[in-house]
Amino acid sequence: IRPERLDKARTQSPIFLDHKEFQDHLRRTGRTPESGESVMGYYDGQNIYVDLQNGVETTRTVAHERLHMLSDKQHRLSCDSRMHEGQTEYLMETMYPEVPIAGKGQSYEAELRVARMMAARAGTDAIAKAYFKGDKTDLEARLGDGKLAELTRLVEEKKYTDAEALVKRDHRGLEPIRGN
Length: 180
Fold this sequence. Notes:
- By secondary structure, this protein is mainly alpha-helical.
- 57% of the residues lie in helices and 6% in strands.
- The protein is built from 10 helices and 3 strands.
- A 3-stranded mixed sheet has the order 1-3-2.
- α6 (109-122) crosses α7 (124-133).
């Protein structure tokens, strides 16, 4: 991780808003969630905004958004939002297992499931290298030719079952991996 990103993440405080202010802010910035989804916080490239309504989830939300802050900008832009959220949640549970998931359950469950399967196939180190450094070489090589782009497309289209099946296939596309 570049030192300037670490310094910013270490020194910049999140902006906490009560629920009404947060919802108004989301509308003003065009970040209204899809039907059935909720937004507890977000990183806009400069600041972290957190909805205080989520209570116990505030610590988790701040940690999740800090990871977005530390992520490589090119990676963030190239992997689409759902894939990035799944990888963020995966890295959250890997790096901060002590941060509880309370109340509302796991965020981005389907995206996280795909990210876990990617890690089982390619390794946490390959995901972290792509996420924090923007270097997808190991991730692409370990997943197999063209799989990362295809997985990203499937996750973005919410075709999670297809994405999971793709991760399970071996590099030659022949037999599925058992036990994932």
